[in-house]
Write a structure and sequence with these properties.
The chain is mainly beta. The chain contains three helices and ten strands; from the N terminus they run H-H-E-E-E-E-E-E-E-E-H-E-E. It has a single domain, classed as Lipocalin. The chain has an eight-stranded antiparallel β-barrel. Strand 7 and strand 8 form a beta hairpin.
Length: 151
């Protein structure tokens, strides 16, 4: 089953947003280090306002919210392996590992690999779900408050 985000007010429940925001983690300030254009950029959960700034440095994925829809979470740094990355996420008593897979045409699919405790309502609602992100801009500077441009 695939979630298509069409209207934030009608389609995105807090649990569905959790899956989308699971990609988020604090970004650290970096010197002008080359970034991978395939991962790095401004990403938007399709059909919603949720927008993230992603920077790929070495085998790590650093992300910060541009528009978080008010959700607060804690994340580890993502670890990249080719066209996939995994990120550990904590949100409202849930601990999850999320898989991000790059697609074609500047897209990425995000889905949970694990979610504990499995009886928690968030885990129950995101089971067998995925969110599609689309790259909507490029990162032109690095670190917190980095600027971005539209493609």
């Amino acid at each position: 089953m695939q979630i298509h985000f069409e209207n934030v007010a009608q389609r995105l429940s807090p649990a569905s947003c959790w899956l989308a925001v699971a990609l988020c983690l604090p970004i650290q300030s970096f010197a002008q280090t080359p970034v991978d254009p395939q991962w790095s950029g401004i990403w938007n959960a399709e059909g919603s306002l949720l927008t993230l700034r992603v920077t790929h440095l070495d085998d790590q994925l650093h992300v910060e919210p541009v528009e978080s829809l008010g959700f607060q979470w804690r994340n580890s740094i993502g670890h990249i392996n080719g066209n996939s990355a995994t990120i550990n996420v904590e949100y409202q008593g849930v601990v999850a590992t999320v898989l991000v897979q790059l697609g074609e045409g500047g897209t990425a699919m995000v889905r949970p690999l694990s979610c504990q405790p499995d009886y928690h309502v968030v885990c129950a609602l995101v089971q067998n779900q995925q969110a599609r992100f689309r790259k909507v801009g490029e990162v032109v500077a690095q670190g917190p408050g980095a600027q971005h441009t539209q493609p």
